[in-house]
Write a structure and sequence with these properties.
Blueprint lengths: L1 H20 L11 E10 L2 E4 L4 E4 L2 E2 L8 H12 L2 E9 L5 E7 L6 H7 L4 E2 L8 H12 L13 H4 L3
Helix pairs in contact: 3-4
């Protein structure tokens, strides 16, 4: 009888864990996979535990030596924590995976959140049809939030050309 109860308890726990392990937060697409994050290199790039470098799709954050660069990096560190859901979008010219990130617990769009909070620009060149990123940038500029507090912030693509 004790063995039967032990087995029943084990089976119930295993079933409960399998149900919750497969549950993803609302807003996370079914094709996005859960991944563990090793580190954040800057405000628009992360490295996964398997050493894959992921560039966030549709955004460009200030460079590390640029005003707001360290703040953008810290914001991304906070948002990704130790894991995210990753939707693969493309591969860039440097061989990095270009991806869409979703918060692992709350399911929100991390890429858009970086722009909405004023930590990154909408990189219109690579995501020209993104109404979400457009709206986020307009909202951040009008508030003004983050880098938009400066009168004339320099976009990273211009900073890199200096």
């Amino acid at each position: 009888m004790i063995r039967l109860l032990s087995f029943a308890s084990f089976a119930a726990c295993a079933w409960a864990l399998s149900v919750y392990a497969d549950e993803r937060p609302a807003g996370v697409p079914s094709e996005a996979r859960w991944v563990k994050v090793d580190r954040v290199t800057d405000g628009d790039t992360i490295v996964l535990m398997d050493r894959t470098r992921v560039r966030l799709h549709g955004i460009d954050a200030p460079e590390r030596d640029q005003p707001y660069g360290p703040i953008a990096t810290a914001a991304l560190v906070y948002m990704v924590a130790r894991s995210v859901y990753l939707g693969e979008v493309d591969e860039d010219r440097y061989g990095r995976l270009v991806g869409q990130l979703y918060h692992s617990n709350d399911g929100y769009d991390i890429n858009a959140s970086m722009v909405c909070a004023g930590y990154a620009w909408w990189y219109e060149r690579y995501a020209p049809d993104s109404q979400v990123l457009n709206d986020c940038q307009v909202e951040a500029q009008q508030a003004p939030k983050g880098l938009w507090v400066d009168e004339d912030p320099m976009p990273p693509w211009e900073w890199r050309r200096r």
